[in-house]
Amino acid sequence: MTTFTALTTLPGRINASDLGDALERLTPEPIGVGVFELEDGSGLWEVGAYFSEKPDDISLALLAAVFQAEEFKISELPQIDWVSKVQRSLKPVVAGRFFVYGSHDSDKIPPDCEPLLIEASMAFGTGHHGTTKGCLLALEQLITDGFKAKNVIDVGCGTAVLAMAAARIFSANVIASDIDSVAHSVAKMNILANGLDRNIQCFEASGFAHEQIKTKNPFDLIFANILLAPLLAIATDMSKYSLSGGYVVLSGILSEQAELVVNKYTGVGFSLSNQIEIGEWVTIIFRKI
Predict the structure, then answer these.
(1) What is the per-residue pLDDT for 203?
(2) pLDDT at position 21, please?
(3) Which residue in 218, 226, 276 sits closest to 247, CA to CA?
(4) Closest CA to 225 of 75, 123, 151
(5) Dihedral angle over CA of 146, 136, 276, 42, nearest 10
(6) 186-197 core/surface letters (b: 16 or more CB in 10 A; e: else)
(7) For helices 13-24 and 57-66, what crossing angle results, to 10°?
(8) Mean pLDDT, each 10-residue run in order, the chain (289 residues)
(9) CB within 8 A of 4, min separation 6: which ones?
(10) Helix, strand, coil distribution of the chain in percent, nearest 5
(11) C-alpha distances in Å from residue 157, one per residue of 160, 169, 264
(12) What is the pLDDT, as a whole number, of residue 79?
């Protein structure tokens, strides 16, 4: 399959994140979007997207103008198995007791850990990003503090790594849901590969908008590693579907966005429990009052 890339740079992490969100809504739709800070001290961020067909030049030019970014550079990549290439380059991730690895590193699993097999794919959440690792460390903290969940949901589950981590630890009802059909398929495959298909129910759903999810509420542990806008949008539903005394773990939040999220969630019935910062990203733990 021919792959096209479109790359640009611009100052400011919030603008870069917003441009990445805007790229997701293009037609033709990208198969992947990345936002990274350049490590040259320039303060610039690189925003790029991968496409399975040539992207629309005019749409990209308009986005660059709106976000005051450099002109997008479009390139056609040779036909390489990029997923396999990424799989080989990803190293295992250790987050507390959790060991997240690809099958190419199955011989490196240490003793006394909770192994989670996650292959690089078109779904977010291999454990290498600060947001996913932050959520795993949040779970580790809750476990260490003696918390035992009985009813868990991972909203916007991506690869389902967080749902699987919870299923490894708790004798609980666990649900993994995602609005994206590709992520839903990847999640189901990962759940099966880890032998957790009897422990986790997987649904394609937007937020809590699925009848079988609604029948399982309230949840005493909710993960939502998504983006700022949807986190704010579902805050009221989070409160509605959370059990008093239970926990909500949120990520996909830049450090400067944390105060906005805290204010929103404390305003709908949560108390701030802790924050975990990894690089520019923050994971926030709330407790339902």
Answers:
(1) 93
(2) 92
(3) 218
(4) 123
(5) 170
(6) bbbbbbeebebe
(7) 150
(8) 85 92 91 80 88 92 95 80 49 88 84 86 50 94 97 94 96 93 87 94 91 91 93 95 97 93 98 94 96
(9) 50, 51, 52, 53, 54, 55, 74, 75, 76, 77
(10) 35, 30, 35
(11) 5, 17, 22
(12) 60
Instruction: Output the CA angle 233-61-35, nearest 5 degrees.
Output: 50
Q: For tokens 């450090």, what's the residue?
A: 255
Residue type (1 letter), 180: D
- Three-class SS state of 266: helix
Residue 87 vs residues 97, 101, 148, 207: alpha-carbon distances, Å: 22, 10, 33, 29
Nearest to 160 by CA among 209, 206, 193, 130: 193
Longest dimension (CA), the chain: 55
Work out whether strand 173-178 and strand 151-155 pair parallel, antiparallel, or are unpaired: parallel
Give the model's pLDDT for residue 80: 52
Query: How many Cβ atoms are within 10 Å of 87's Cβ, its own excluded?
Result: 17
Tell me if residue 289 falls in helix, strand or coil.
Answer: coil
Q: How many CB atoms lie within 10 A of CB 153?
A: 28
The pLDDT assigned to 126 comes to 46
Dihedral angle over CA of 111, 112, 113, 117, nearest 10: 40
Considering only CA atoms, give the Rg of the chain. 19
pTM for this prediction:
0.71
β-pairing, 281-288 vs 219-225, is: unpaired
Q: Half-sphere exposure of 208 toward its Cβ, with a 13 Å CA cutoff?
A: 21
List C-alpha distances in Å: 105 to 165, 192, 256. 18, 18, 36
Q: Report the pLDDT value the prediction gives residue 39, as an integer from 0 to 100.
A: 65
The CB density around residue 10, as the number of other CB atoms within 10 Å, is 18
**Do you know the residue count of the chain?**
289
